[in-house]
Write a structure and sequence with these properties.
The protein is of the alpha+beta class and about 260 residues long. Helices cover about 25% and strands about 35% of the residues. The chain has one domain: Hypothetical Protein Pfu-838710-001, CATH 2.40.320.10. The radius of gyration is 18 Å and the shape is globular. This is VTC domain-containing protein.
Length: about 260
């Protein structure tokens, strides 16, 4: 990503203040990793990149949790309205870890709640994390976690985060764009692995209105796709599971 160095920097505190977007619309794209520099070269001059102590690309690790009956996975696979996702997310470079619960809001929005989590316990949910998860799911009227939760999938990747300002005078919130490369899925139980070679996952996190990044991607011929790091990873490592929402991505990009 040689074009990354040319972008102005934004600090973490300012990014979180102006474009936190815990309730948002997510649009995901799969683009050849060779296109990433082109995208960065085409963004508006007001776009800034997250920079922490001179570093602009950061290692992420996510551990996903599910019930023994895979209620989280099957809820997404069958497109149930009250589907949910539970994970710990580790920012490897800073050593920070959070437990995060994602649920569905109104009009297709994603609602994310998170709380600090011990780094050395990122593959488990302690009593505090379980209570936090249960409360977040109860608030979203999810009633599908009988039997507890166990770790099922690990994902690792490198992420670049862009701050994308809204058009002046539009009254819309600023948005974020994330670019993930080097994605690798690992099954927790078996250790089986699958790498998403040659592709980058670009995700726009906006209000209801598409961002400038969305429009740049559309102009280049890219359209949103259905890809979930948890759902798609589980589907490629467990082909016996139902995978209708991600079948096209699996066929065209993941297993090709």
């Amino acid at each position: 990503m040689s074009a990354l160095a040319a972008l102005a920097a934004v600090g973490l505190d300012e990014l979180q203040e102006s474009a936190a977007l815990q309730t948002r619309v997510d649009r995901k794209y799969l683009v050849p990793d060779t296109f990433v520099d082109t995208l960065l070269e085409r963004v508006d001059g007001a776009v800034r990149v997250l920079d922490i102590d001179g570093q602009r690309s950061f290692a992420y690790e996510s551990v996903y949790f599910d019930t023994p009956a895979l209620a989280s996975y099957l809820g997404a696979a069958h497109r149930r309205r009250r589907r949910f996702k539970v994970r710990t997310r580790t920012y490897v470079d800073s050593g920070q870890c959070w437990v995060e619960v994602k649920t569905r809001g109104t009009r297709g929005t994603t609602v994310k709640n998170r709380a600090p989590h011990p780094l050395d316990a990122r593959t488990t949910l302690d009593d505090g994390a379980l209570d936090f998860t249960a409360q977040a799911l109860d608030d979203a009227r999810v009633r599908e976690i009988d039997g507890g939760m166990v770790p099922t999938l690990l994902s690792t990747y490198e992420r670049v985060t862009l701050h994308v300002p809204a058009a002046p005078g539009s009254g819309r919130p600023d948005s974020r764009t994330t670019i993930d490369t080097g994605l690798v899925w690992t099954d927790v139980a078996s250790g089986a692995r699958h790498a998403l070679g040659g592709w980058a996952v670009v995700e726009t996190k906006t209000g209801s209105t598409p961002s400038a990044t969305d429009r740049l991607l559309w102009e280049a011929g890219h359209r949103p796709v259905r890809i979930s790091k948890y759902g798609t990873g589980m589907a490629v490592l467990h082909p016996e599971l139902p995978a209708t929402p991600w079948r096209r991505v699996l066929r065209r990009h993941v297993t090709a």
